[in-house]
Amino acid sequence: MKHFKHTLIAFLLTTILATAAYTQQASIAGRVLDEKNAPLDLATVNLLAARDSSVVKTAFPDETGNFMFTGVQQGTYLVRAVLVGYEDALSEVVEIASATAAKNFAPLVLKNTNTVLDEVAVTAPQRPLVERKPDMMVVNVENSTLAAGNTAMDILERSPGVTVDKDDNISLMGKQGVIVMIDGKQTYLSAEQLANFLRNTDGNTIKSIELITNPSSKYDASGTAGMINIVLKKNRMAGTNGTFTAGTGYGFGHKANTSLNLNHKVDRLNVFGTYSYMDNEGGNEIGIFRSIVQQDVNTDFQQYTEFNRRNRNHSYRAGVDYNTSDRNVVGVLLSGYASGNDNNNSSNTLIGRTILSPDSTLFTSSLFDGSYRSFAINANNQFTIDSNGRKLVADVDVSRFSNRNDADYNNTFYLPSGDIKGQPLLSRSNMPTIINIRVAKVDYTHPFGKGNKNKIETGMKYSNVSSDNDMRFENQVGGVWQNDVGRTNHFLYEEQVAAAYLNYSTTLGKLGIQAGLRSEYTVSDGNSITMANRIKRDYLDFFPSVFLNYNISDNHQTGLSYSKRINRPNYGNLNPFEYFLDQYTSEQGNPYLRPEYTHAFDFSYTLMQKYHLSAGYNRTNDVIAESMGQDDVTKRTWVTRDNLAKQEIWYGNLNVPVKVTKFWNTNTNLNAFYMGFDGPLGGEYLSQGQFAWQLRSNHTFTILPTLTAETSVNYQSSLVYSIYRIGSQWSIDAGLNKSFYNKKANLKFSVSDIFDTRVQDVRTQYANLNTVINQKNETRVARLTFTYSFGNMKNGARRNDGQSEEKSRINMP
């Protein structure tokens, strides 16, 4: 491990030093200000040849108004700054007499030609709800009526190509194994912890969701299905400004949310912060039917469970960005949340040869009192080496997640007469979990060549994730609480990943090429202290990626890509302990799970820069698949996970935005795929597959300049996953948005799943299993949300330069 770290460090330093070891080049630097000496970072600055005023180079100021031209040849020049709403400003003649000359001149001051703008909020044109880019699909939820008042999980469930199953597992384009990031930073949480985090994240704090099906080598190789990046709102306008949001709603229970976003930017300093509070009462219902045959004797189990919960969550983000120089920005970001969850669940299970005449009934009640805490700190530095785009970015992240779940259980058997059979079984549990995450990474970008058509990207990353899960279970015997050694478990897990990557991109005429290679060395240590079972592993993998883009014409573009990816087992699934839900149902981890590897091929075609078609093939080896086992004698059923030989997915995706009339815009996304599984699983051989498709059609109606309406129609056909067959479902969402006070205030009303049609139907008939699961989640919710923006709203339209995507991912200005 140490040898590999040293190799990575040497590789990175050699690359950086080699590419940075250029001799000094001539440069011209300056600053763009308005009449009040405020920086104008939205301006465009051109370097002109003095002899004929032809444009030699173009630059864009940073947030302090500073700009720089490097690599300037000997000669005489002028510098011109332009911005809509301002008079152009032209510098004096600048002479570059040597190859190492450095010229600085007085600030260029632009005079405002429209003083009315001082009192008017200037906003950029509203982006479409779904936007297709060459390497991703972006869901712009910031101004969407359907997103107002919802949680991050609610918004994900309504995103094109995204599905969330009954166990909160997230799939993208039909594929599980998705990595979810927040502002480009991986969460490193288990599926259950991630679901809890997303359900306690206020959707009003989200700007957009990026769906990346085939990431390049620059990103972590984790996630066989790709990545979902949740981009949080950032406000970088000059002065002091903010946004206040308050909302209420009702579904299974009452809901309330409020948030405050503040930003203060002056000169080189930018301070920002967000606080949100959510109070959510809700629930869901699950029905499970199992039929067990033992020596021609049939025993049926019909279970109905009702979950009632209340979640209260406080979350915050606060940060500072400071320009230490014209080309260097340092930043610190603090974030965290504190959540309290109360669950009151009850379950009735009818047991007998026929459910119409059961032999007995098992009643189970459970009370959960949970708390979730997180704290994270990020320190970052971005050094812009020159105006050609060379930059060095470093990030260090330290975070801690902790949760505690206290539960009380009451299991009572009743005879058909209604009398209690035996003594009620009273038990309780305490399940504290602590996760510590430490991540450090550095990325270097180096454009070069004529017109900067070539680019090298390289970097290194190290992550360390440790988890401590200490579950304690007790039963009441004779009025005394006694430890249940069969259900008490202490599991420790640590995983270290050291990575390095190199990307090269260039253009050859109409052909764009990007090739990269990423290496990741993984060391894991899973230790079940209770069961005295410890498994250590280490392995080195290489992940190549290739992207080809051909620009046939302005109206026709094509792309072809390949990448290899990995999905490591969730540390919770590696815990060999068996968790009993009741005496007939349990879940067990598998310490021998291996990583799954995916080879992903994708073809894309874009017509008229708005209609997008993609098709591809994914093959996953050693796929981590959920399976079930059943003991016909004891009538006990358990859920576990095993490695299945292979999974194959053929898919096609079509995204069609249409402007039907001046007031009616639509965006329809169709995702069709074939998913097949093949290999031994659970002592039997599984070979099944099915064609499936998903449709999401969003419609926006501009009724008045200050009144818009949105509707969304969603359909998912039946599909198979592992041993399960999942039924079809559909829903319709709708909402209204009314703006006031020059669009500084908005009132939004929405209803999700208007007809309450989203019901999950899951069936399995595999080996000796015959199970049917019906789950109804809280999908129909009415919400009313008010938003008000205040403060200095000048220059609200922000230019997106070629680095905007990278900046959003690294949380830098």
- The CATH topology annotation of the largest domain reads as Maltoporin, Chain A
What's the CATH class of the largest domain, please? Mainly Beta
At the fourth level of CATH, the homologous superfamily of the largest domain is TonB-dependent receptor, beta-barrel domain
Percent strand equals over 45%
**Count of structural domains:** 2
Radius of gyration: 29 Å
Low-pLDDT runs of 5+ residues are 6-24, 115-125, 794-813
CATH architecture of the largest domain: Beta Barrel
Q: What is the number of helices?
A: 4
Helical proportion? under 10%
Largest sheet: 22 strands, antiparallel, barrel
Structural class category: mainly beta
Distance between the termini: 35 Å
Which whole number gives the mean pLDDT?
Answer: 84
Global shape: elongated
Number of strands: 47
Q: Can you characterise this structure?
A:
Residues 384-788 form the Outer membrane protein beta-barrel domain. Its main location: membrane. The chain is mainly β and 813 residues long. The chain has 2 domains: 2-119, Immunoglobulins (Immunoglobulin-like); 239-810, TonB-dependent receptor, beta-barrel domain (Maltoporin, Chain A). Helices cover 5% and strands 65% of the residues. A hairpin with a 3-residue loop joins strand 19 (239-250) and strand 20. The longest helix is centred in the first third of the chain and has 19 residues, at 2-20. Mean pLDDT is 84; it is low at 6-24, 115-125 and 794-813.
